[in-house]
Model the fold of this input.
Amino acid sequence: MTENTIFILSNHDYFNRSGAAIARIYNYARALTLDENTKVVLLSFKLSGRLDSRKELFKNTFVAGENPIHANKGTAYFLRNFYFISSFLFLAKLVREIRRNHVKPFSFIIFSMRIFDDILILLFLKVWLGSKVVCEKNEILYTIILNKTWPTNYFKKFIFLLVFSFKISTSFLTDLMVVFYDGVIAISTNIRDWVLRYNKNVVLIPILSNDNFLPDKKPGNASDDFMIGYAGSLTLKKDGLRELILSIQILVKEGHKIRLNIFGSGNKEDVSFLNSLIASQSLSDHVFMRGQVTQAALQEELRRHDLLVLPRPESKQAHYGFSTKLAEYLSTGIPVLATDVSDNKRYLQDGINAYLLDDLTPENLAEKLKKIIREDKDKRDQIGLNGLSVSQNEFHFSKHSNTLLSFLQEIPAA
Done:
């Protein structure tokens, strides 16, 4: 049978294995290469190197290129501000190499968040090379910009307004580029429905998990405190960290022995606000900012908690997106408390395989946490195991292999 070569192109450094985007790309590759005749090559605007310079990450999945092209600060600054020049050169070189090596890509899957990259990708890969080009849509970009935290300083507000105006325009145009792709992979039903307005060739592939971290035995909580864990971006608007911290303050005042560990990083203003909030509420002995840790270490840390929380407030970003963190949480076997946003209720049932909260306020969250803490531990453990089953049966990459391959195969050849 003919071997299919599928290229996945993004702006990520694949040798830095942390982060939700990298994990999702790897899970796509794992799903695709379950077919013995499919090979995946990962490409990145951030990596230099030729197609014949490949490193095998896992079975039938290779990274093309070895050295990051932003090795020094000057190069990094240039590429950050004039990325379209390096993208142009990268794509021109890629097309030349594909033709010289007589490689016929079965298709390209694009992870792009920049308008000029999209334009160049479509011109070089779809028009010039004549390949099938599909984009992966896990966010509606303009909603991310709308959800940014405004600075408090007046001068910074003015600069932010100028940048905001530019970014909201380019983000909206980037979102609309879906109309020119041969197909679109959507992470949520809401994104799928949005894309259908502009492109009828769309498939739903939800958040994905793998079996690297499926627990054999839970390490357990060695503390007498009820341990709550959160991991993600430390932003005030995207996830309700302010409400989460204030809910802990309510429980501490009522005498509950409780501890919250927060893993992740964020911009200076949001992190400073969170640290000030912890100090002002006298929660330094109950809420701990643990910083960024590696993906493998994070999974092990999360499994030491009694409950994992994803307190995402309702917003346009939350409405369209579908947090990849949920799949990671569920795969630990620890019970999860999430808010009812996006597709959460499509897969989760309150008190069965997770805990769901309808309206995120500090008071509502504190009440929900109290009920969970009072609940029988055996029931909580069973809910965690049921959540693990959801991760394995609904989100495991192997469950979506045939859907993904069939979607790519059914797109007419150029």
About this structure: The two ends are 21 Å apart (CA to CA). The longest strand covers residues 4-10. Residues 226-395 form a domain with the Rossmann fold fold (CATH 3.40.50.2000). The chain has a mean pLDDT of 87.
